[in-house]
Specification:
Blueprint: H1 2-17, E1 28-30, E2 36-38, E3 46-52, H2 61-72, E4 76-82, H3 94-105, H4 124-130, H5 132-135, E5 148-151, E6 157-161, H6 170-173
Parallel strand pairs: 3-4
Antiparallel strand pairs: 1-2, 3-5, 5-6
Amino acid sequence: MKKLFSILAIGIFSAFATIPIISIHQFKVKSIDGGIIDFSKFKGKKILVVNVASQCGYTRQYAGLEKLYEAHKDKLVIVGFPANNFGSQEPGTDPEIVQFCKARFGVTFPMASKVSVKGEDTAPIYQWLTSKEKNGVLDATIGWNFNKFLLDENGKLLAYFPSKTEPDSDNILNYLK
């Protein structure tokens, strides 16, 4: 009987171990200022996750992201993830990135500590965002800076937008109506 119980327990545990995390609300990440960004605190709001860089042709999108955040922060949170994966376009330290973002673009939306968004050292949250097996919705390949992932109020992935999609595009704004 003990052996049967052990086999059943292992089987049940194994089944749950393969169930994907279906909500971003289960993630906590280090913030750029040394604190913690707890995604569960964003329940009830849409979330736009963006991999950002300070020395990229798309860096000007910081202004559009801040404008979008200010206009919709009652129902939208934007979280920037600095990453140095593409052309070494985010070489700065966290304090340098904060200074740049505030001075150049007046960024007030939450920013995570610098992470990797592709490769062997991909941050767990980006592993989840880019894998249908993990997020239950879609696969995405991050090809450059300023890729955007939109999540609904329950933390479920809604859409992925490539770098060229501007923060004020109808593709994004239609989800905020």
